[in-house]
Give the backbone structure.
Amino acid sequence: MRLLLPVQNSTDGVLMFARALKSNVIISIAVLLFIGMVLIDFVAIRTFQQQAIQVEIDKCALLVTMVENDLAYKEDLSNFPLSPELKNRILPVFSDTGISCARIQSLGDRTVLLFGDSCEQHHQFEKKVNKAIESGQRKVEFSGSVWGVYWWQRKSMVFSTPLMVGGHVVGGISLARNLEALYQDLRNAQKFVFIYILINIVILTFIGFHRLFKVFLEPIERLAKRAENYQETDGAFFPVRKQDNELHILSRSLNSMTRRITEDKNKLQNAVHRLEKTNTELNKAQEEIIRAEKLASVGRLSSGIAHEIGNPIGIIMGYLELLKQGDIQAQEKLDYILRTEKEIHRMDTVIRQLLDLSRPLAVDSSVVSIHEVIDDIANVLNVQPLMSNIELTLSLEAQSDQVLADPNQLRQVFLNLAINAADAIAADREGKQGRLEIMSEVTKKSLAHKKRFIKSINIRFIDNGPGIPQKNLDNIFDPFFTTKAPGKGTGLGLYVCFMIVDSLGGNIQAHSTEGQGMTMTITLPLAE
């Protein structure tokens, strides 16, 4: 029987554990004893029933012997009568032994004796007696059903046998015995047996529980209390006592296991501390790599920035020269001032964009619009000399473009990919018209086990540059790998892009056929 052991995390829990354990043990012992005794009683009842039926058969055989002894003194056995003395002796015996119906018949089919006036079986007995006379063999038949002690049993028994005198068949006899009284006596006796079983269960349960408690339950309860109050500073976790029999071996084993667990725990804590320290150092190194690549990108843009600042300065100086002239009208002077202010705002915008790209900002994830970031990058690229012979096209068709990310990191990824495409086109075309298309679309991925879809956004940077040989595609995201000439690149741009996209739960892939351009695809999960 399974024991249900509740687990608590306090002293009250240990007490509840002990009480539940004791109750389950007592119930288990009582149930097992009850089942065992009932099974023994069942076997005993079955055996007694068979023996009791055999006794009834022997009684019938004894009655037949009495009749055969009386007939041994008759001269004419073909149509014999029973002596009055035998009738006077045998009829009371029929009643005393529970014979409900009886029929004695001679060879001439003459009925010598009928017993049981209300018996409905006399018409069947004649056939049974004739069969016994013809076969010369005894036969016992059972019929009907009545409730016994544990199950249904046969209600009545018919004993049929030929009458033998001097080794010859002289007639036949059939006796019917009702067995209801037999089963009634067994049921009456069974009441006292059940009382005896209950008394034995109470006594044996108490004795068995007392023995089990001393041998097993008391040590287990002590171990449970010790485990509940255990502190890491304790020495031996489980007390060891030889009188606990086999449990003292368990206690020693548990103590050894606990010591090993404590040692492993200390090793694990040290390993965790080392991993935390290593992870912190890796994060710092990753931030430095990203910052270095960001500064490299800013360096690539510096010539364009200088051009964007130089032009407004020249314009401003021209307007200042005009303002020095004293013959200009007030309206013209105001116009020159407004144009000068506009050029100053233009320089301020360029400088702020440069500062935004180079400033080491902390990662601050929020819901960001991919299209707004791409538009911002496009505005920066459109004024760069490296994009002068490149047609930049935006095909932003994604119906939803909200992702959870740091906008500065996304800006750096998109800017790196755009600059790489521009460099590749410039190196291949040498002044010819190049094309760079930035596309977006929403994709759905089915999750069969959850019966729903996950939406993602794909951003593609497609250029018509020379592409990359197939052998180099697997290496382009490796740190310090570059196909540019020495001094033209750090080899960290795509590696930084890969790290940033991966940290956002997305992925970046490259597809290229040498001589037919390059496609960089970024997949990011949409914000729910």
User: Anything to note?
Assistant: The CA atoms of residues 467 and 517 lie 4 Å apart. The chain has three domains: 11-200, 260-360, 365-528. Residues 365-528 form a domain with the Heat Shock Protein 90 fold (CATH 3.30.565.10).
